[in-house]
Each structure stands twice: as structure tokens, then as C-alpha cells.
């Protein structure tokens, strides 16, 4: 049963690779790529959940006179490759989620006496993000290869930069709130952020 389940896992991973097309994943529209990655994650998690459900109910598949043989083997024996691939997909999903959020910065315009300065700072963060994101689009490696260390290095550097952008963006927005002299202008800042 272990070998059979490993083959199922390999089949799911190979079908996912065919569906996602590794060389195109960072070159297509972000929303489309994110949707495909999320669907793949959903299917893989569904398969693993199904395994665990049936593992618990294994005794129901035997007649009362037959001795029940439980699946007491370590799941790592079955899901070693599968879990590494799923982990890689979760990292890619995280990249796409943050990229979609940061690409919305292009549309932000903050009003008020210093609004133009604040808007320029936000747009500067947006341009820095574009440079950061370009690394993935121009990469030559297979991002779905869970053995690839280059991707992990780029992912870690990207997440560090995202944390830096978050802090800088937070300080700009904090200054925009402090600069808003009335409650109405503070609400306008909130509305601008909410609409993005």
C-alpha cells in the first residue's frame, strides 16, 4: 500500500507540474498564476485529507470476521516528495499574494498639504517592489523544483524586502494620518487605502 500511495503522490505532483508549467509561472498574469497555484494546493491538500480520513476509517472496510490491518506506517514514507512540493507551492502562493497587494500601490494618491510628498514616497516603494519582483520573472531556474536552493534564496531575500517595504509604508501612512488636520481628511486617507 505504501508503494501504491507513493505512486499516487507522484502522479499528483507530475500532473500539477504539467498544469502549472514551471517556465511560465512567473511570466503570466499574477491573478491567473495565483488562481492556478491555489487550485493545485486545494487538490493536493484534498488528496492528503482524503488519505487521513480513510486511514482512520480503515476498520470499516473489513468484515467483522476479518482481522483489520491498520495503516500504521509513518506518513512521511508516503508523502516525502509530495510534502516538499506542496511546501514549495505554498511559498509561491505567498509570493503571488504579496505581489498582488503591493502592485495596488501604483494607484494610491494621498491628498492634503503634504499629500504629493507622501504619494511620491508610496510610489517609490512601489517602484522598488517592481525591481524586487523582477528577479522572479527573469530567473532561469525551475521555481517548482523543491530541490532548487536558488529559489529559496530569492524567496528569503524577497520576504525580507517585503517586511522592509511594509515598515516604510506604515511610517508613510502614519505621517499621512498625523498630517491630516481634521477627522474628514483622516477618513479620506482611510478611504484611499480601503479602495486599493
From TrEMBL:
Biological process terms from the Gene Ontology for this record are: microtubule-based movement
Q: Which residues form a coiled coil?
A: none
Sequence ranges assigned to domain Dynein heavy chain tail in this UniProt record:
1-190
GO molecular function terms here? dynein intermediate chain binding; dynein light intermediate chain binding
List, alphabetically, the GO terms of the cellular component aspect. axonemal dynein complex
Q: What Pfam families does this protein's entry cite?
A: DHC_N1
Top-level taxon: Eukaryota
PANTHER family under this entry?
DYNEIN AXONEMAL HEAVY CHAIN 12, MALE FERTILITY FACTOR KL5
Name of the protein in question: Dynein heavy chain tail domain-containing protein
